[in-house]
Amino acid sequence: MDIIFYLKAIISLGLVLGLIWLLSWASKHFLKHYLSSRVHGKRRLNIIESLMIDAKRRVVIVQIDNNQHALLLGQQDLLIDSNLTPPHDVQEPIVQDAKNV
């Protein structure tokens, strides 16, 4: 084998890797607008609250646009309620410090 053969192989590999990098950079840079999930800069999906029931199950309240949905996530995902109304009088939970008790 000749040194020219190895040199051509290394240059070809570098060229292919460079083209792959250029294509990935261009797709991230120029297609960013088309790949985003936001509409007019505002997120449509928000997680309002999450509560662990046990080691395998969790209840999550998600908001999609102006609708709230309660989901039970675990081995089998389940929609609990799809017409939740957000409470108007939300009080912050009272948390006591261990130092003051």
Brief characterization of the structure:
With 101 residues, the protein is α+β, with helices and mostly antiparallel strands. The protein has 2 helices and 4 strands.
Could you characterize what this model shows?
This protein has 101 residues and is an alpha+beta fold. The chain has two domains: 3-35; 45-84. It is built from two helices and four strands. It has a four-stranded antiparallel β-sheet, with no helix packed on it. A hairpin with a 2-residue loop joins β2 and β3. The longest helix has 28 residues, at 3-30. The N and C termini lie far apart (81 Å). Residues 92-101 have low confidence and may be disordered.
* Number of H- or I-type helical stretches: 2
Give the percentage of residues in beta strands. 25-35%
The secondary structure category is alpha+beta
Tell me the distance between the termini. 81 Å
Order of helices and strands: HHEEEE
